Amino acid sequence: LVFWGVHLVFWGWCLGGGGGGIKFAEGWLNRPAQGHFWQEVSRQYGFLDVGYRHLLVLPLRRLSSWLYRVDGRVIDGIVNTAGVGTVVLAHIVSFADRLGIDGLVNGVAWLARRLGQLTRSVQTGRVQSYIATTVVVFLVILWWIL
Known about the structure:
The chain is mainly α.
């Protein structure tokens, strides 16, 4: 684009009369117009405006219009789909966390509480009941082994 811009500025300067010492374009602009394009070119002082419009402005406007549509349809679609997908994934992970991780932690806490209640009923502070329990457990183990 820079090359074409410099090129158009140079030719516009030469053909528009800014060249001073350049003589090859003097007769060309004074020649009678041969058609609609040449009439417009001669009216625009050396086809700079027409050249800019046809070589830069119109293609860039078409490109920007196309990019606007691509952004609206493709890019925004991808971003919105990624956003919805992230929310759905977050709900799935939350559900799995609630049932899996929190369920495991709460289950261990419940088991510790129940075992604490069971051992609390066994611990009475009376030595005679401890000895009797030990003897019964020892006899059950002997019976099971033999």
